[in-house]
Write a structure and sequence with these properties.
CATH architecture of the largest domain: 3 Solenoid
Distance between the termini: 37 Å
CATH class of the largest domain: Mainly Beta
Strand order of the largest sheet: 1-2-3-4-6-8-10-12-15-16-5
Largest sheet: 11 strands, mixed
Structural class: mainly beta
Number of helices: 2
Shape: elongated
Number of domains: 2
CATH topology of the largest domain: Pectate Lyase C-like
C-alpha cells in the first residue's frame, strides 16, 4: 500500500503528480516535499503538471504547491488540473445586435487544466476537458479543448473548444481577438481590421454560427 498522498507518473510530455483526494492539503505538501527530495534528480528539469482531483484550491494553496516544487526540485510547473474548479460568473451579456442575460453556472463536468503562463507562438495545448489559461495566448499559439476555454488575458492565437463535437462549448477571454475561433465543427475568423475589444467577451454557437457576447465578470465565491 502506498504510504504517500502523492504519486508521480512519467509521460511523454513530462511528469504528472497525482494527489490523493482523501488527504489533507498539509499532508499533501509534506509528502510532496519528501517525494521531491527523493526523486527530483531522476526527473531533472522535466515539465510537471499537478492533478489535485476533485478539490478546489485557493490562490494561496496553489502558490504553496508551486513553492514546494520550486524549492525542492528543478521541475518546471506547467499547470494544475482539477475536476472541481469554477469559472467566473457571467452576470449579463450584450450580444451583437441584441441584449440578453446569460448565466454560466460552472465548468462542465469533466477534467480541467489550468495553465499559469502565457502561451507563445509555436506552443500548443490539446486537452480532453476544459482549459483555463492565466495569461495571454499569443498569435501562433493554439488551444484545442474538448470542453470550454477560458483565457484570463488576451486571446490572439487559435482556439478550438468542443473539439470532440460539443456544440454547447464556449470560449471566454478578457480580450477576444483570435486568428481563428472554432467551436465543435463551426469556424470563425476575426476580421483583418478588427480592433482589440475593450471588455471581456464570450463566444458560443447559436443558429449554426458563432456568436460573440460582451460580458461583465463578477468573480464567484
Amino acid at each position: 500500500m502506498n504510504k504517500y498522498s502523492v504519486e508521480f507518473k512519467g509521460t511523454k510530455d513530462g511528469v504528472t503528480i497525482y494527489c490523493l483526494e482523501s488527504a489533507g492539503f498539509d499532508e499533501i505538501l509534506s509528502d510532496l516535499t519528501e517525494r521531491l527530495k527523493q526523486r527530483a534528480a531522476f526527473f531533472a528539469e522535466a515539465e510537471v503538471r499537478v492533478d489535485i482531483g476533485n478539490r478546489i484550491l485557493t490562490e494561496h494553496e496553489k502558490e504553496q504547491l508551486a513553492q514546494v516544487i520550486a524549492e525542492n526540485s528543478k521541475l518546471q510547473l506547467t499547470g494544475i488540473q482539477t475536476t472541481a474548479q469554477r469559472p467566473p460568473t457571467v452576470s449579463s451579456a450584450k450580444r451583437r445586435g441584441e441584449t440578453e442575460d446569460i448565466k454560466m453556472e460552472g465548468f462542465k463536468e469533466g477534467r480541467s487544466l489550468v495553465i499559469k503562463r502565457t502561451l507563445r507562438s509555436g506552443q500548443g495545448v490539446h486537452f480532453p476537458g476544459n482549459v483555463t489559461v492565466l495569461g495571454d495566448v499569443n498569435p501562433g499559439a493554439e488551444i484545442v479543448a474538448e470542453g470550454d476555454i477560458y483565457v484570463f488575458g488576451t486571446l490572439r492565437g487559435i482556439a478550438h473548444a468542443g473539439a470532440g463535437g460539443d456544440r454547447s462549448a464556449s470560449v471566454v477571454a478578457l480580450r477576444l481577438a483570435p486568428t481563428q475561433l472554432r467551436i465543435a465543427d463551426i469556424i470563425s475568423r476575426a476580421p483583418d481590421d478588427s480592433a482589440l475589444p475593450d471588455q471581456p467577451e464570450y463566444a458560443y454557437i447559436s443558429d449554426n454560427r458563432i456568436m460573440i457576447a460582451a460580458i461583465s465578470i463578477k468573480l464567484g465565491s
